[in-house]
Design brief:
heterodimer; A: alpha/beta; Dihydrodipicolinate Reductase, domain 2; nine-stranded mixed sheet; six-stranded parallel sheet; 15 strands; globular; B: alpha+beta; T-fold; eight-stranded antiparallel sheet; three-stranded antiparallel sheet; 10 helices; about 35% helix
Chain lengths: ~450, ~325
């Protein structure tokens, strides 16, 4: 399926119609409305969406916080099995925003009780995704599902089938697909300007420092019977599910998935093969069943030739953090959610990019200071760095907000999803194969039909 | 970049149950000292607290794109913006403190401060036109907050530049201490860059957390105190910084250092800043009206003066006697 990503309307903040009317009316009439009158027109009840969230651990809280910065989103329900801690925390937060919210431990209770929901955000552990997504779609709700779609391909396929049966929307939480930096990079620079020329190689990483296992406040431990009911052997496993086989997929899935998704998007196809090296090299294998270190290399076959794409995730050193680098015969693009890194570098032999600077696709590099005129042919100094072009993109919102807005506006019929389930499935297939490649120690191939559920 | 090194007194901290955890945030180092028999549990609690600190910084820092403060700082007047709870709580408290301190604490003077900083780098005073333009971006009264919707709206004709530098660290220290409470950690000290400090429980049974107050230039302790469920915040001009009197938009020279002792590090952070700007009689009146607050000032007098003549203390310090 073709990507449905929309190019940014303007590089930067979109001004919505209501805001435009608000300011232009006030300016035109030469009168200034009071803040409370402005608030009354800002919130539009007819745009309200009633939303629930399942799973308010670390990631769920990030999504919740982003949603609370989007107009006309009203939370009606919050669901988490950690009743005394995460559930209470999220519930209390929503009460501070005066949302008429009910707290649930079990998602079935929530779906049985809540009858006027429009959408559910699912940020539960990966091994719960299939069950949660299938049940919510079955209840006739639009779903925003955190990546990875599932810890197993079987689970991911169940979700695709449920989505096909439903007339509701399913957005997968690869939030870079809605990020203005990535949209500009893809639509303007890679596609329209073809600034990289023929992409030959990709490099990417997400490196993190050593961390202790997640603990929990001792007085708020979940009772063992509840843990067992929801698939956990003990509290440690609940708090560290990402490291356990049968629960999560380890860092290559938690972190790598976001970026390998971008590889597929920018290269325009799925890989034909992968090799990978990895293992639990540093941490305790009893509590870190999945690999703490993974280095993977994909091969893509495109109409312009072969692309080799390397990706590494390590959990013992945070050097250089996270980013992706797309390299072609004419330029290199460094792109990251962490915007300070973003830049694009022209190969010395490539055609000038003046046209793209004039069109506002790129900002020209800052020219080095000219030497004082002496009649000398050259000023000899430290090595000149390669000229760094930057992107004229203003993005001043939390990382996940545009992707959630794209989901909510798609429900309202104003946009189309930037990451529908078919794309999420392709990425799940691409990423889950890495763990298989590590285990087998061999080069594994993909058949084109594997990417279709 | 390595973390800034903060020396501890080995004699005070050489206890088997004393654990120290450090983390870079808010352009400084935050630390958590925990007295607890279980190192692993203390480490996990500190890790949870530092994770929370990351999220606090992501919402409060004016230098982080996408933070609520960045979003407010690019907000045109007469628009509505929904913000996160951390930023809302901070701004709400900062508005209250602005009023309580008669305008001497003001998180909206960042633009004026930037003017003085930029000029200071060149050894100059700011250009009058630039200063006038900067002053248009101030005015906490223009920031209209609505609790029910957690929204802000900027009134007037100009943008604003909020910098929570005088409150955010203390706010984070308070929040981290609350989180350690949730973890049943009874004995802990949390500090942000040594200027915002909160002690809970004791380092040694019954004695709270011993801390000292030093002269900025000498680094020599002139007083000690013990923090037991108590915060101590310090402000000073030791690094060639300017503190702007929001009432005039000019740097102030009232004090060269000030401390505030209170029950919350956020409030103390704001008050230690305000005490740099208030005159000593104003500080005295403030402490008389707020019995929970104690102040210590180092007056900016001739360098040759006897140091004891420069010290002013107000309110009932538990161990007040300055000793040199």
């Amino acid at each position: 399926m073709a990507a449905t990503n929309q190019p940014p309307v303007e590089a930067g903040n979109k001004i919505n119609r209501r805001q435009f009317v608000q300011t232009s009316a006030a300016a035109g009439a030469g009168l200034v409305l009071s803040p409370n009158l402005l608030r009354a027109s800002f919130f539009n009840q007819s745009d309200n969406l009633n939303v629930a969230i399942i799973g308010v651990g670390a990631q769920g809280q990030v999504l919740l916080s982003a949603c609370l910065k989007i107009p006309n989103i009203r939370f009606k329900a919050v669901c988490d099995i950690w009743e005394d801690y995460n559930l209470k925390r999220a519930y209390n937060l929503l009460k501070k925003y005066r949302h008429d919210v009910t707290a649930y431990v079990d998602h079935q209770d929530m779906l049985a009780q809540e009858k006027d929901l429009d959408a559910v955000i699912i940020a539960s552990p990966d091994f719960w995704h299939a069950r949660h997504a299938v049940d919510c779609l079955g209840a006739g709700l639009n779903v925003y599902l955190e990546k990875e779609m599932s810890n197993t391909l079987e689970g991911a396929r169940q979700i695709v089938q449920a989505a096909k049966k439903s007339d509701k929307l399913l957005q997968i939480g690869h939030q870079r697909r809605s990020n203005p930096w990535y949209l500009h990079s893809y639509h303007k620079l890679v596609k329209e300007a073809n600034a990289l020329g023929t992409i030959t190689t990709v490099n990417g990483q997400w490196n993190r420092s050593v961390q202790p296992d997640n603990g929990w406040p001792v007085k708020y431990a979940i009772p063992p019977a509840i843990l067992r009911k929801y698939g956990y052997d003990n509290m440690h496993q609940h708090r560290n599910w990402r490291w356990y086989k049968g629960k999560g997929g380890g860092p290559i899935v938690d972190l790598g998935s976001h970026q390998i998704d971008i590889y597929n998007w920018f290269i325009g196809t799925q890989p034909r093969a992968v090799m990978a090296s990895g293992g639990t090299d540093y941490y305790d294998k009893n509590t870190h069943e999945w690999y703490d270190t993974v280095l993977a290399t994909y091969e893509y076959e495109t109409e312009n030739g072969i692309v080799r794409a390397f990706y590494q995730t390590i959990t013992t050193n945070s050097n250089q953090g996270y980013h992706e680098v797309f390299m072609g015969d004419q330029g290199a693009l460094v792109v990251s959610e962490s915007a300070g890194k973003n830049g694009i570098y022209r190969e010395p032999s490539a055609p000038e990019w003046d046209k793209w600077v004039e069109l506002g696709y790129l900002n020209a590099p800052v020219a080095p200071a000219a030497p004082v005129a002496t009649g000398a042919v050259l000023d000899v100094r430290e090595t000149v760095p390669p000229p760094k072009y930057t992107m004229p993109v203003q993005f001043n919102d939390p990382y996940h907000k545009p992707h959630l807005e794209n989901f909510f506006n798609s429900i309202r019929g104003k946009e189309t999803l930037n990451c529908p389930v078919e794309i999420g499935y392709e990425t799940a297939v691409t990423v889950l194969k890495v763990n298989e490649a590590v285990a087998s120690g061999r080069r594994l191939t993909f058949k084109p039909e594997e990417f279709v559920a | 970049m390595p973390l800034p090194k903060i020396e501890l007194n080995p004699a005070a901290t050489d206890l088997p149950a004393f654990h120290r955890f450090s983390h870079r945030a808010m352009a400084t180092v935050f630390e958590i000292f925990i007295v607890c028999d279980d190192f692993h549990y203390a480490e996990q609690a500190a890790h949870a607290a530092f994770t929370e600190l990351y999220f606090i910084e992501m919402e409060l820092s004016r230098y982080v794109p996408g933070s609520d403060i960045s979003r407010i700082n690019t907000l045109p007047p007469n628009r509505i913006l929904q913000i996160g709870h951390y930023a809302f709580e901070c701004l709400n408290a900062c508005k209250t403190l602005h009023t309580q301190t008669n305008g001497t604490f003001d998180v909206s003077v960042g633009a004026v401060l930037d003017c003085w900083r930029q000029a200071g780098k060149k050894g100059q005073v700011p250009d009058e036109a630039e200063l006038a333009a900067a002053k248009q971006k101030t005015g906490l009264a223009r920031l209209d907050l609505d609790e029910a919707t957690h929204t802000v709206c900027l009134t007037g004709e100009h943008a604003i530049l909020i910098d929570l530098g005088g409150y955010g660290k203390g706010y984070a220290v308070d929040r981290l201490a609350e989180l350690l409470d949730e973890w049943s950690i009874e004995h802990a000290l949390v500090h942000g860059g040594t200027s915002s400090v909160l002690g809970r429980g004791d380092l040694q049974p019954g004695h709270g957390w011993p801390v000292s107050l030093s002269l900025p230039e000498a680094g020599q302790a002139f007083a000690t105190s013990a923090l037991r469920n108590r915060a101590l915040n310090g402000s000073g001009l030791q690094k060639g910084q300017h503190i702007i009197d929001p009432r005039t938009g000019e740097p102030t020279t009232s004090q060269c250092a000030a401390w505030a002792a209170t029950s919350k590090a956020g409030i103390g952070d704001a008050l230690s800043t305000a005490f740099m700007i208030m005159s000593p009689p104003e500080v005295e009146a403030f402490c008389a009206a707020n019995p929970d607050v104690q102040a210590m000032l180092i007056l900016d007098e001739n360098p040759g003066d006897d140091v004891n003549h420069k010290i002013r203390q107000f309110g009932a310090w538990l161990q007040p006697a300055p000793s040199i």
